[in-house]
Write a structure and sequence with these properties.
The chain has about 240 residues and is of the alpha/beta class. It has a single domain, classed as Rossmann fold (3-Layer(aba) Sandwich). The chain is built from 8 helices and 7 strands, in the order E-H-E-H-E-H-E-H-E-H-E-H-H-H-E. The protein has a 7-stranded parallel sheet, sandwiched between helices. Strand 4, helix 4 and strand 5 form a beta-alpha-beta unit. The chain is globular. The structure holds NADP nicotinamide-adenine-dinucleotide phosphate (NAP). NADP nicotinamide-adenine-dinucleotide phosphate binds next to helix 1, helix 4 and helix 6.
């Protein structure tokens, strides 16, 4: 199951999982986006369904997992990718905006992990949750985002200890990834300027592709990642933050 699987990183992960032979449940708040990913996964030969859900709602997280179990009989892997972003400096950040972002990224990750815990444990599977390089470095305007993304790492450390020895739980901290969200609202010129500025911090000299994160996710969930748990994997083109 991939939350946020209708777009960007989650979409790429869902399609890589499908290509690897998994049946895939795509959970996204945008029905049409989730359904489009499910169609693409099906076209690649996988069993795939889309479930429209808001991960910040307890009942939606439970429904995602119960649907996966009803349709496919089991749930091996959970990937928490759902998220959105807003920016405001601390002094202008309303409590409502703070709570809304924490609800999706941090509480949503908790709710989906709690709902999937028994199934993933029984299957001997794994969880991967998306943090961000911004959990480790500051950016003006992103206090709520950095707090949520750092919280995902603390939460995952504990989750890993509770899922062990049956299943794993890890975090990926992506650097800048070229997704619809990253480009949102920018003209071509603004996008190019943002990209060129951001890439100066990236030794590998380019933005990441969603597939870079998908391949790291499959490594953590696959047979070569079975003794890796409670960790954060920085997939960021070598960007260094002290
Ligand atoms: N792109 C980057 O550079 C980058 C870097 C580090 C970490 N990340 C993290 O990676 C994850 C995916 O990012 P992305 O760039 O691929 O974003 P994206 O292209 O916007 O895809 C995220 C998907 O999640 C959906 N979503 C938002 N809120 C949701 C909710 N409450 N319940 C279910 N689905 C919801 C979004 O719908 P809407 O379109 O309606 O919002 C969208 O379809 C996020 O957690 C993000 O913070 C991204």
């Amino acid at each position: 199951m991939v939350t946020g699987g209708g777009s960007g990183i989650g979409r790429a992960i869902a399609l890589e999982l499908a290509a690897a032979g998994a049946a895939v449940v795509i959970g996204d708040i945008v029905a049409a986006a989730g359904e489009e990913t499910a169609r693409e996964a099906t076209a690649r030969g996988a069993n795939a369904i889309a479930v429209t859900a808001d991960v910040a709602r307890e009942e939606d997280a439970a429904r995602l997992v119960s649907t996966a179990r009803q349709v496919f009989g089991r749930l091996d892997f959970l990937v928490n990718c759902a998220g959105n972003v807003s920016l405001a400096p601390v002094l202008e950040l309303s409590e409502a905006d703070w709570r809304a972002l924490i609800a999706v990224h941090l509480t949503g990750t908790f709710l989906c992990c709690r709902a999937a815990f028994d199934a993933v444990s029984e299957a001997g599977g794994g969880v991967v949750s998306m943090s961000s390089s911004y959990a480790f470095k500051g950016r003006p305007g992103g206090a709520h985002y950095s707090a949520a993304k750092a919280g995902i790492f603390g939460f995952t450390r504990v989750l890993a200890s509770e899922l062990a020895p049956r299943a794993t739980a890890n975090v990926i901290a992506p650097g800048p990834i070229d997704t619809p969200r990253w480009r949102h609202g920018l003209s071509d010129a603004e996008y190019a300027a943002k990209r060129d500025k951001r890439v100066k911090d990236v030794p590998m000299g380019r933005l990441g592709a969603p597939e870079d994160i998908a391949e790291a996710t499959l490594f953590l969930l696959g047979p070569h990642g079975r003794w890796i748990t409670g960790q954060v994997l920085h997939v960021n083109g070598g960007e260094f933050y002290a």
